[in-house]
Amino acid sequence: MNCNNTSIILxxxxxxxxxxxxxxxxxxxxxxxxxxxxxxMSLQSLFAMADQQSQHIKVSEEALKAAExxxxxxxxxxxxxxxxxxxxxxxGNAFLMSRGFSTRGATEYIVPGLxxxxxxxxxQPTPHWGNSFTAQVSQVIYAGGAIRSGxxxxxxxxxxxxxxxxxxxxxxxxxxxxxxxxxxxxQNQSQVIAKNIELTERVIEQMKVRRExxxxxxxxxxxxxxxxxxxxxxxxxxxxxQKIIRHQIATMIHLPEGKDFEVDANALEExxxxxxxxxxxxxxxxxxxxNNIDIxxxxxxxEISEQKIKNTRASSLPTVAIVxxxxxxxxxxxxxxxxxxxxxxxxVGIGVKYNLSxxxxxxxxxxxxKYESTQVRENVQIVREGIENGVQANYINLLTSSVVVSTQExxxxxxxxxxxxxxxxxxxxxxxxxxxLDASNMKLSADMALVNARIDMLYNYxxxxxxxxxx
Length: 471
Known about the structure:
The chain is of the alpha+beta class. Helix content is about 65%, strand content about 15%. The protein is built from eleven helices and ten strands. It has helices at about 5-10, 15-30, 45-55, 55-75, 145-210, 220-255, 265-275, 280-290, 295-315, 360-425, 435-465, and strands at about 40, 80-90, 95, 105-110, 115-120, 120-125, 130-140, 260-265, 320-330, 345-355. A hairpin with a 3-residue loop joins strand 4 and strand 5 (about 115-120). Helix 3 packs across helix 5 (about 145-210). The longest helix is centred in the C-terminal third of the chain and has 70 residues, at about 360-425. The radius of gyration is 41 Å and the shape is elongated.
């Protein structure tokens, strides 16, 4: 996070201590990581690959595409509806019967212009082959706001899907950050173990020379050989742990098989330099309030709930539409005697549809939507409180970890001095081998603790960025 000169000047003593500790991290971490044959890869490079290849992100991106189509689908309700119907049919013979269902006799049939005519009951000559073509166009001009609210809900749903993509992206990045820092920690621990192995081997060689001089017993060399074997085992375990983490990273970002990488310490140094501009907790809280995706989604949910209320109210309002229809059909069978002819009928009108039962049925749905909207608005405050507590806790952890780094650096310095003094005394036969072993173990523990403290501090910084969704 960037901060202006005024913020830097007003940093309290804890922030200054944190920045000072990071400066020491940068200087110390670079010298303990050797050159590797594998290409180095920074966190940002991993992030870029994850954005393109992570399965978790791809799933949410497909959901976003579906949400975008949902917006287009909702907007289509504003367009006119056009229905076409074509039908072919076979019509059976028509039978004329009396009111007593008899086919005998005749029925009086009034023919316009000719007057009453008698038609013999029974089978009537009927055209058999029929056809029908219907075209209907309707345009809703008023739906109580249901269409508009539906479009707005679709748009808000699309925004929610966009936030889901970003949320998944942040989660994948934070998970990759954890793996990356664990790998960095294991590499540094492996270097510490390697240095202690080298130191132990040197001591053993010196002790072998002194044994030939008769000043060291075989038992003393055996004890250091045991320590050397423990260090070699620890080195193997650290190397195996690195393989596991590399595989997890490769699986997450879908690295090609056989492709490997090493941690880019210089890129991590640049990340660590950002801690020099560590701002106050208030600015971190402000960043979380503006950028945290959970808060943004909770706020968006309130807008969706308000649109649901409008949509529910629309069910209690009438729907008005303009309707036009053209119907071409034949034969004409609606008369007493079917006529083998096509008839074309069309009309244009306005239709009004109103569900009267909604006056007493929809009230419960409206009240339910209002209660749900109130619940969603209250949930925004709950989410804000949770994020605020998380940012405050992680900020304090970051400040604490800076103190831990400073303390561990002092411990390493004291352990180095102690080891130098004890080794000198042991070389002059002024102390026991057990004291030498204790000093060696103390030095190893201090070195390992310092490595862990430095990585933990970086992790706390990245976790703050994750809480504010600025990774």
